[in-house]
Design goal:
Number of domains: 1
CATH topology: GMP Synthetase, Chain A, domain 3
Radius of gyration: 18 Å
Structural class: alpha+beta
Number of helices: 4
Helix content: 40-55%
CATH superfamily: K homology (KH) domain
CATH class: Alpha Beta
Shape: elongated
Largest sheet: 3 strands, mixed
Length: 122
């Protein structure tokens, strides 16, 4: 994968900021969990498509509902993004569930368990 240019990095940051604001403050869909955050955004260099990595603090059902709610509000989100950011093309947004935070928490628990069992043995 090629390295992002400075322009593409700035666009990613701006889309991330606006997407977070739209999801947090403007969408009223009850399926979207209140503890939803946008972890990162990857906008294609041609500005046609965008992957938004979403993290939801909750159980599996709330994650699925949030993803369904975001997919159904995709047109509205894209329109608000076009109004707030002046880009040549407004990217088509694809939401992807990001499990990295949950994975990190689980790994931390496993490490703590191993360290605790080692201390008990000594």
């Amino acid at each position: 994968m090629r390295k992002n240019s400075i322009k593409n990095t700035r666009i990613n940051e701006e889309v991330l900021r606006e997407l977070s604001n739209i999801i947090r403050g403007e969408i009223k869909d009850p399926r979207i969990h209140p503890m939803t955050s946008v972890v990162s955004v990857e906008v294609a260099p041609d500005l046609k498509s965008c992957k938004a990595y979403i993290s939801v603090l909750g159980d599996e059902g709330s994650r699925e509902d949030t993803l369904k709610g975001l997919k159904s509000a995709e047109g509205y989100i894209r329109r608000k993004l076009a109004q707030n950011i002046n880009l040549r093309n407004t990217p088509e947004i694809r939401f992807v569930m990001d499990q990295s935070i949950e994975y990190g928490v689980n790994m931390s628990k496993l490490i703590d368990e191993v360290v605790g069992s080692k201390e008990e043995e000594e």
